[in-house]
Amino acid sequence: MEQSSSSSANKVWESVTTYTVQCASCSKWRLVPSKEKYEEIRETINEQPFMCDIARQWRPDISCVKESDVKREDQNWVWAMDKPNIPRTPKGWQRIIRARAEGGTKFADVYYVTPSNKRLRSMVELSRYLGEHPQLAQDGVTTSQFSFQPPVRFVDYHVAKRRAGSSSRDKQET
Predict the structure, then answer these.
(1) For residue 17, with 0-12 CB atoms within 10 Å meaning exposed, 13-18 middle and 19 or more buried, which class applies?
(2) Which of 125-150 are b and which e, b meaning 16 or more Cβ less than 10 Å from the residue's Cβ?
(3) Cα-flanking dihedrals φ and ψ of residue 13, to 5°?
(4) pTM, whole model, 2 decimals?
(5) How far apart, in whole angstroms, are the C-alpha atoms of residue 138 and residue 98?
(6) In this structure, which of 10, 20, 97, 113 has its CB flanked by the most CB atoms within 10 Å?
(7) pLDDT (tens digit per residue) in 92-137
(8) 20 close to 174: Cβ distance less than 8 angstroms
């Protein structure tokens, strides 16, 4: 899927190319046309669950009676689940998800790319960067707008291996 951002960092680092969200009514997966639209939906998914009707913004013919856009069983896709309510990335910034090789302890890494194209790997680096650039605070950028929480790989056996204390609400969208 083509991204609307023109930053070269997206082309170099991003390993996620397609975004989907699951309808809370029919449980069918709908392709989301852009990373920006996906982030908008993800940010408020608990307060405003996604329904196929919302997808009519970009696909007027869509409804719960239409077939799912993609199926989890498709072996050509690697499915990952973001936690709900991760804030939308501030304007001019990018949230990059980079999948790791199979067999590791973590599915993916999350980076943020600043408007000046600097890649940040942690909340510590982000806090330091914001401290060095006080004009960003004046523009309303705060650490609460960022989450380095990586998505988890979503596979059939994942549910059985879920860590104690994690909830089924963690698995709401890709």
Answers:
(1) exposed
(2) ebeebbeebeebeeeebeeeebbbeb
(3) -105, -35
(4) 0.68
(5) 30
(6) 113
(7) 999 998 888 777 677 888 999 999 999 999 999 999 999 999 999 8
(8) yes
